Amino acid sequence: MHTDPIFIIASALAIAVLLASAATHKLRAPARFAKQLADYQLLPDSLVRPSASLIPLLELVIAFALLVPVSRAWAALSAASLLALYATAIGINLWRGRRDIDCGCAGPDQAQPLRPVLLLRNTVLVGLALLASVTPIVRDLNMFDGFVTVSASAVALLIYAAADGLLANSPLLLKLIGR
Predict the structure, then answer these.
(1) What span, in angstroms and rounded, lies between the C-alpha atoms of 76 and 87?
(2) Which of 37, 95, 98, 118 is least crowded, fewest Cβ atoms below 10 Å from its Cβ?
(3) Where is this chain's protein located in or outside the cell (predicted)?
(4) What gap in Å lies between CA 49 and CA 30, rounded to an integer?
């Protein structure tokens, strides 16, 4: 399947920004991220700290590789795999009935409990990452194409931020209306 490069570059840029942002959240509060990772109870205690150090670095490497055309395809597949792994971890803990733990999705400033809607969110993100792995049709890009690409990425990120904000604050909103 060949797709216009605007779609591929815009999706790669959006996923790159998302991963870089996630990595900086984890690097700003490493102890908190290590605790969140431990709360999932999927790793032996001896692997929690090394994994908590490695994951944000992996996210940064993938984010930067998404921005380079020659590495974009493998980086996009790596991003999709990482996002699917996160969804699997969330799914396992939902299956265990552990909805009270912080998913680690909202950064160090805000806790977000596990909910099934996070699986849907990650599925959409996996799809966006997979779109970035597709070989684009070969055509020259002009200044307007660059504007459209950046705008499309910005819109995708704004939609993500708005949805994530609603997800993170929905327990407070439900409490506010008395549910």
Answers:
(1) 16
(2) 95
(3) Membrane
(4) 9
Mean pLDDT of the chain: 88
The whole-angstrom separation of Cα 6 and Cα 14 is 12
Strand, coil or helix: 176: helix
pLDDT over 80 (residue 151): yes
Closest by CA to 115, choosing from 170, 39, 176, 156, is 170
121 closest CA partner among 78, 155, 165, 153:
165
Number of domains in the chain: 1
> Which pTM does this prediction carry?
0.85
136-149 pLDDT per residue, tens: 878 887 887 787 78
* Per-residue CA distances from 112 to 77, 104, 122, 171 (Å): 26, 7, 14, 9
The answer to whether residues 103 and 118 touch, using CB atoms and an 8 Å cutoff, is: yes
CA distance 54 to 79: 15
Q: Residue 110 phi/psi, 5° resolution? A: -150, 130
Residue in 83, 77, 73 with CA at minimum distance from that of residue 3: 73
DSSP state at residue 103: -
Count of beta carbons in the 10 Å neighbourhood of residue 179: 7
